[in-house]
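ok so I'm stuck.
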Amino acid sequence: MRVLVTGGAGFIGGHLVEALLDAGHEVRILDSLLDRAHGAHPRPEVDSRAEFVVGDVRDPGVIARALAGVDVVSHQAALVGLGVDLQDLPAYASNNELGTAILLAGMAAAGVRALVLASSMVVYGEGRYTCARHGVVRPGPRRERDLAAGRFEPDCPVCALPLAPGTVPEDAPLDPRNAYAASKAAQEHLATAWVIGGGGRAVALRYHNVYGPRMPSDTPYAGVASLFRSALERGEAPRVYEDGLQRRDFVHVRDVAAAGVAAVEAVATGEVEGMTACNVASGAPRSVGELASCLASATAGPAPVVSGQYRLGDVRHVVADPGRAERLLGFRARIGFAEGVREFATSPLRGNGA
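replied:
not stuck anymore, here's the structure
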């Protein structure tokens, strides 16, 4: 089948393009080559087997041309990262929300009825927590006075008892807590409206903390794994926020690409109907401090510094239940944390030779 991959010259998109081509599909890439994703560097290398169109998903004319002859769209294009400050709000709304709306309108006009949407675990806000008295609860945003005093764990919103973190399922309420998260939740809502209004099929892949070769390097919009790697390449100690015990699910980009191929095939053939969300995660959570320590050890670099710094938009623990992706898509992460981090420790990053 012919697949349009928006953002196909980016980090996750590039790996997805290669995996789709290896699986025998035709691929057309649409990418605007945003500086925040690619830096002030020459046009990136993309797999020569794919057709490459430079253009913006917010341009209806570009979208109409890019959709010609397409069977399914994998929408990876987005402005990513927590953001620097509130001045980033318009950029997230424009690139992620408006861009998705224009893409979906174009798909409806072109009769393309199959969509894979790159979503994110950030739509959950905090992960799943249990109170000994009140069962499953949803803590509110953490208070700055608590963070400043080094009290990083959220407490029960009813009785203020400590909470036990668990794995978050896809039916958890969405609770976005920063500009990027709000824009990703909006993308999912727009996709749902598109499915209901036009009879299409969509899978939203809620990526957890993706890492691996060709991550963007040294930018405020990069992921924590890339920031740690970039610091180590400079001979500096990785700086770990809070106490380093915040838990995430780190999933290798090649596993994410495999999930993307499975989702494309499932939604295109009708194996998945309506609008469905799936966590894309390893199922083996680790702390942020553990990631920093493993990278430092693998590069023989300086030990991480636990800084106690914090960001108000950050959440404490978000780890996933990946069972639905296995049941619906046949996807299970294959690359273990130790193996993946060893490879990532010496693999090229985008912006320094990648």
